[in-house]
Amino acid sequence: MTNYHEMKIGIIADSSCDVTEELQSKLHVTLIPFQMDINNHNYVDDGTVNIQEFINEMKISKETPKSACPSIGEYEEAMRQFDVCFVITISSRLSGSYNSACAAAQMISEDASNHKIFVVDSKSASCGETAIALFINDLIHQGVDPDEIFKRAEEFVEKQLTLFTLIDLDNLFKNGRISKFSKITSSTFNLRPIMKANDGEIELLKIARGTKKAFTKMVEMMNDFTKNAKMDSLRLIMTHCNCESQAMQIKEKLLECCNTLKEVIVIPTGALSSMYANDGGIIMACLPDNEV
Fold first, then answer.
1. Domain endpoint, select from 109, 133, 158
2. Exposure winner among 51, 95, 128, 195, fewest CB in 10 A?
3. The domain spanning residue 171 has which CATH number?
4. Residue 83 and residue 136: Cα distance in Å, rounded?
C-alpha cells in the first residue's frame, strides 16, 4: 500500500483561480499563468499585472482582448515538483487549459514515473476554482486518501453553484462566451443579467433592472440555494473586479440573510478573471450543503 504521508502533495491551478496573499499562504497553490493580449500588449497573469491599468486599456482598446491558456510544458514542469498533485482548471468548455493539463499528465504517466496526478475540470472559473482548491486543501490536511479526494472533488464540482452578474459583457460576447441576446439585454434599459455556470457553460438565469437589484437578487438566490444546510456550516467565495465596496456590502447582506454561511471570503479578480468579469463584475461560488 502506498504511504502518501511520506510524499510531497500539492495543488496546481491555472491563474483563473483567484487568491489573496492570505489565502496563498494557506493553500501554497502553484498557479500556472494565462497570457492576455490587448493591442499587442502582452500580459502574463502572474500576480504582477496592475488591474486598474489593465481595465483602462481594455476600455480604450478597439480590439477584442485575447487570452492564451497555459502550455503543456508549463503544466508538466509544475506537476513534476510533486509526488501527488491535484490540478484545477477553468471550465474545459471555456478554455483549452484542461486539455493542456491532461496532456501533461499523460506525458508524465508514460515515462513510468511514480507521480500520481489528478486533473479536475472545475466547470467554473475564478472563485469557483478557488472554492475547489480550498476544499481539496482541507481534505489533504485531514489525511484523506488522494483517490478519495479526487472522487469527492468531482462531486464538489457537480454540486457547486457559481453565480455572477457583470456590468459590461463585451469581452464575454466578443470571445463567443455568451449569446448576442445576453449582450444586448445588458446594454439596454440598464438591465443586468444574472448568470450561472451550467455544466461548464454560461447560462442566463434572471434579468434585474439595475446593478443594485441584481446584487440583491443574487443574495436571494444564494440563500435559497443553501437554505437546507446546517447553520454556520458553509463557506462562500466571492470575487470582484475593481468594486471592493460593493463586494463588501454584498458580503454583509449574505451573512445577514444566509444563516447557513459560516464565512464569506472576498477576493479581487486577477488579470484573466478581470478580462471577462470586466469593471464592476461580481462572482460568487458555494455548495448547497457540506455533505461532500
1. 158
2. 51
3. 3.30.1180.10
4. 16
